[in-house]
Amino acid sequence: MTDTAKPRREQILDSASRLFSERGYHATSMRDLAGDLGMQGGSLYAHISSKEELLIEIVNQASRQFDEALFTLRAEAMPADQKLREAMYRHIRVVADNMDSATVFFHEWKHLSPEAYARVTGWRDTIDAFYRELITQGVQEGTLRADLDIKMTAYLVLSAVNWAYTWYRPGGSLAPRDVAEQFADMLLGGLRAPTGAQP
Amino acid sequence: MTDTAKPRREQILDSASRLFSERGYHATSMRDLAGDLGMQGGSLYAHISSKEELLIEIVNQASRQFDEALFTLRAEAMPADQKLREAMYRHIRVVADNMDSATVFFHEWKHLSPEAYARVTGWRDTIDAFYRELITQGVQEGTLRADLDIKMTAYLVLSAVNWAYTWYRPGGSLAPRDVAEQFADMLLGGLRAPTGAQP
DNA sequence: CCTACCGATCGGTAGG
DNA sequence: CCTACCGATCGGTAGG
């Protein structure tokens, strides 16, 4: 344990996440990636078997992070508005803490081969289902408005938490918790002023 | 006017939008594109000068559509909540009516050469500014909540209207107007039930 | 992990 | 708009 360096394979995945997110999967060559790690192109294949393996692993790791963050919430007994707030926080935290792989996840999953592609599609459905269940629970409880369209409400929430990958800047003045609290306040309470002041 | 076919150059741009959005810019070869149009790879260069020219034109056309939709709203005198509703409708309509080029716009602009890249970055700032002004106006008028953080509110609205490119399906049961009305209702009125019913 | 290389494919051009 | 081609670069491999 005196060696503080990450295993070479993890370094490769980190570099790949960064380069794929900046330039895109197809525009990043294996020689670009090797150069970023200070080695020759062919040397990468001592650690990995193919370029697509890297993409698959990056996307899988991102999926797993979302899963771990959200699905532990499923069982918890909590009013739905509070649960929605917590889900948004966890979701945004995953995006914010993994900006590179989240960007790869949102942009490059279409380039996966059919099996991996289908897995991602299926996974996205489970995330949709998670939010729809949560909102349905809220409507049934009476904490959320009775006239909500469940599907559209889930899209709206997912828009807010996913789109963060385009504008969030780690290390800035906003922590993931701040973003989530503000978004949840606005979504739950609405943007319109309480008094319908008409001059 | 007896010829109903589009000019060849427009056909090329349409095919390019579709292929770039499905497979990505770098994963689409000029031979793929030519094949989609029933011609040989080299023949494309009778109509265009380079692959990047196609990307630039697709991105520029998309920007122009957003501009035309939104900036005509700027001058209109209208309560800010209503103006926000109308802006969301127009924004979503541009996305919905141009799913391919909107997808290319959101995913592939990073692959532009420095000058075109900088132009897109600058353009995005003007869209941000448009929404921030609109929200500021609403706060000053009293139609929107006084405690809103302008920047975060603009991000939330932009999330909702932009993320539609990932899930909207033209020809489905939801027209752009429906999406915009539902999103605006939820955003303005909030998701929480009016009566704080606590059993 | 490097050197040297493979066949395939890339964007683009010349000449017709 | 086609044929035939250019140099460059791609992902990946063999042998050390």
UniProtKB/TrEMBL annotation, chains A, B:
Keywords, sorted A to Z: DNA-binding, Repressor, Transcription, Transcription regulation
InterPro entries for the chain: Homeodomain-like_sf, HTH-type_TetR-like_transc_reg, HTH_TetR, KstR2_TetR_C, Tet_transcr_reg_TetR-rel_C_sf
Gene3D superfamilies reported in the protein's UniProt record: Homeodomain-like, Tetracycline Repressor, domain 2
TM annotation in the entry: none
Known DNA-binding region: 29-48
Residues in HTH tetR-type domain copies: 6-66
Top-level taxonomic group: Bacteria
GO molecular function: DNA-binding transcription factor activity; transcription cis-regulatory region binding
Name of the featured protein: TetR family transcriptional regulator
Organism in which the protein naturally occurs: Deinococcus indicus
